[in-house]
Specification:
With 126 residues, the protein is of the alpha+beta class. It has one domain (2-123): Peptide Methionine Sulfoxide Reductase, Chain A. The protein is built from 4 helices and 6 strands. Helix 2 (51-60) crosses helix 3 (83-100). The protein is globular.
Length: 126
């Protein structure tokens, strides 16, 4: 099993991750305490679904060109856990930027920087 973690300002529903892509085994949705950012943690089987496919769905679920302010409180984030995930996320971000001809403000950051905050997530009911 591999882990993927994404965040964005109040848009997440776990339903698309379960219904759209086979190979996703578990999805946990929460909100970062003290921030206006929803987090989705996905556990998936890399033999059935690629990380790139999950990143594609993440970008389909929100507008990656909008940032309400300059803080982490209102934006989208990809929290990578491996160099492979970092590479895939950067490639997709650059691809979107070339297609839409706008700046993509999605932050790509290591999960370790936010590990304490993610452990303090509160559960969101859907």
């Amino acid at each position: 099993m591999e882990r993927a973690v994404f965040g964005a300002s109040e848009f997440f529903s776990k339903k698309p991750f379960y219904t759209v892509i086979r190979g996703i085994e578990n999805v946990h949705v929460g909100q970062l305490k003290g921030a206006n950012i929803d987090i989705v943690e996905i556990w998936f089987d890399p033999w059935k679904v690629s990380y790139t496919e999950i990143v594609d769905l993440f970008f389909d679920l929100h507008d990656p060109t909008t940032r309400q302010d300059q803080s982490l409180k209102n934006q989208s984030c990809i929290f990578f856990t491996t160099v492979t995930q970092l590479t895939a996320a950067k490639q997709k971000k650059n691809e979107i930027k070339q297609i839409i001809k706008k700046d993509v403000v999605t932050e790509i950051t290591p999960i370790c920087e936010h590990l304490i905050d993610l452990k303090q997530m509160k559960e969101i009911s859907y």
